[in-house]
Amino acid sequence: MHNYDIQHLKCFAAAVRLKSISKAAKAMFMSQQALSKRLRTLEKTLGFTLLSRETTGVSLTVEGFDFYQRAIEAIEAFDACVAHGEQIARRSPLSASLCALPLCFESFGGALSAKAMEHFQNSHMPLQFVFAELPDTLVATSVLNRTYDFGIGSYPEGDSRLQSRTLAEFSFSVLVGKNHPLSNASHLAPIQLTAFEMIVPSMESGPSGLPNFANINLDDQKISPLRITSISEEKLLEDNRAFIVKPTQNALRYLSTKNVRTIPLVDERNSPITASLDLFWRSDLSMTEAHRALKAFVERSYRGRGLKDKEAPRNH
Fold this sequence. Notes:
316 residues, alpha/beta, 7-stranded mixed sheet, two-stranded antiparallel ribbon, disordered C terminus
C-alpha cells in the first residue's frame, strides 16, 4: 500500500515546473517544510530519488524524469475525473446551473447580485445552484455540451437545440477622455469614430474589440494594440485620443468621473444601437424543481430595472 495521494504528485509536478521547492510551496499555498516532507514521503515510498537538490534549485534525476511523465498523466486524469463528477452533480434533480456574461453580475452593473443569489440559495435548501461567469463566446457552447443548464448571453439564431427568453435590450455608449475632440458630442455614430483608435478592455470584449454580443458595424475601425483591464481605463482615456465601446449599463459607472465622458452610440437614423441579452437552455432539458426555480429567479432579477422585458419571438 503506497503512502501518498494526488497532492504528493501535484507538489512534485510543481517543483519540476518551477525548478524550485520554495516557489512550488508558494504556488501550492503551503510551507516549504510541508512540501519538502511530501516530496521525501513520495521518494521513500517509491524507493528512488526524484529530484536533484542544488543551491540553484532542483532538477529531475533519470528515474524522476521517467516517473514525471506518468505523474502528469495521473494528475490530468484525476482533474478530468473531478470535472466530470462536478458535471454529474449539476445534472442532479436537486441542482441547477447558470453561466452568464460578466455584465450580468452586479459588479459590472448587471442584475445578478451576490446578496440576492445567496438569499435565493438559502431560501431553496436543499436545492443547490451554481452561478458561473464566462465570456460570451463560451456561454452557448457550455449550455449545449451540458456543462451548464442555463446561459445568459447572445442567442445563437436558428439553433433548434435551444429555447430562449429575451431578458433585456442593451444600448451601447462610447467612452472618451474629457479632452477628446468628440467629448462634447451629445451622441456618436460609428462613422465618426473611424478617425480614432478603439481600445479593447481585455476581459469584456471579443477579438473584434467589441462586446461579443454586439452587432455593431465598425469594420473599418482602427484597433489599438493595447489590451487593458477596467482598472486602467480612466487613466488611459484621460489624455488619449482613443475610445472604448461598452454596454451603457456598464459605462454609466463613469458618469460621475470628471475625466471620462459617456456618450450614447447611435446608428445612421440616430437611434440607439442595441443588442439583446437572452436567457437560454437546451430544448431537451427536463425541467426539475431546481431548474424552474433558477429560471424564475433570473427573470425576476431583470424586472423593474428600466430594461426591456419581453417574450422572445422564438420557441419557449
